[in-house]
Design a protein that fits this description.
The chain has six helices and eleven strands. It has helices at residues 121-132, 157-162, 166-186, 200-210, 253-263, 286-308; strands at residues 44-46, 60-62, 65-67, 82-90, 93-100, 108-112, 136-140, 193-198, 217-223, 240-245, 267-272.
């Protein structure tokens, strides 16, 4: 295993709110990955539940026809109880671990951010919502403290991106993956994982699954992934869901369909008409918000089918 457990450390950042847990040992206590008793509520923050869209979802265009997303009218999303958030440092890679408290299903997800990093509010909010659905979600700092900033001139973007070697990022993700598998095994729960990514992170989903020689991941979901390496797509052996908008210049539908063909029948491309880049975790219009709800439901159903039911 690439990560040395003895080297793992846990700390709270200066100025962090007291919702973070602090453990002196190198291994997370099982209670971090399993439902926690009310007595430690002071370390827990409530995740605000969001109502499902009451609009009956329209059929979404896919490469093999239409797919229906089942959303019950006037039904609230799965009860969002409490979410426990812990800061972890794994071989010098910072990350946030969010775990469901009362409805924990014992399954882990790796959530890969866009270029704005793991502390960006849009990524954090999405991670909370996923955890509210029962998952243990690890959100790593892919950029080692140097995410892209909206305040930087666009002319510097390519130079910034070149400064973050994809091999280093993939190595970090492999270390985090092995850590999650080890921790879950120690807690006596599922060893199978899922991986979700947005934009930059969505592009890395295919890389990670293609390099997953140990079969740690059971499925992946890529939201409008950028610069996906279609060459390695043929090495992916698990179901992958690709979600994108047909007006996204950074994630062309034609390229996704080519990747889908290389992966085979276990993958699916879902295209939302009229949507641009980032509409799921950064909705800007009422139409974006409506389709973001449908995409979340589709993601949740996909995870239930390929991660919970099949493991």
């Amino acid at each position: 295993m690439a990560a040395s457990l003895a080297s793992l450390s846990y700390s709270t950042k200066t100025g962090a709110q007291p919702l973070f847990n602090r453990y002196g040992s190198h291994r997370l206590r099982p209670s971090c990955l399993l439902p926690l008793p009310p007595s430690i509520g002071k370390h827990i923050t409530k995740c605000s539940p969001r109502q499902r869209s009451t609009k009956k979802p329209s059929a979404l265009e896919t490469s093999d026809g239409a797919v229906n997303v089942k959303v019950d009218d006037d039904e609230e999303e799965e009860t969002c109880e409490l979410v426990n958030r812990t800061e972890v440092s794994i071989d010098s890679v910072e990350a946030h671990l969010l775990t469901a408290v009362k409805n924990n299903n014992g399954t882990g997800l790796l959530l890969l951010s866009d270029v704005f990093g793991f502390q960006d509010s849009s990524t954090s909010d999405f991670a909370y919502r996923v955890a509210c659905n029962g998952y243990n979600v690890l959100v790593p700092d892919l950029f080692r403290g140097d995410p892209w900033s909206k305040n930087r001139p666009e002319s510097e973007y390519e130079e910034w991106r070149r400064g973050h070697d994809l091999n280093r990022i993939q190595k970090d993700i492999r270390t985090l993956t092995e850590w999650m598998v080890d921790e879950f095994a120690a807690a006596g729960i599922s060893k199978k994982l899922g991986v979700i990514g947005f934009c930059f992170g969505g592009g890395r989903v295919v890389d990670i699954l293609a390099a997953d020689k140990n079969g740690y991941f059971s499925t992946g979901i890529s939201f409008y992934g950028t610069r996906i390496d279609s060459v390695v797509a043929g090495y992916v052996n698990v179901p992958v869901l690709f979600i994108a908008g047909d007006r996204d210049p950074l994630c062309q539908v034609e390229g996704l369909k080519e990747i889908e063909e290389k992966i085979g029948e276990v993958s699916k491309v879902v295209v939302f008409e009229g949507r641009g880049h980032g509409f799921v975790h950064r909705p800007e219009t009422p139409e974006d918000d409506r389709d973001a709800e449908e995409a979340f439901s589709l993601m949740r159903n996909w995870l239930h089918l390929h991660l919970l039911r099949e493991n």
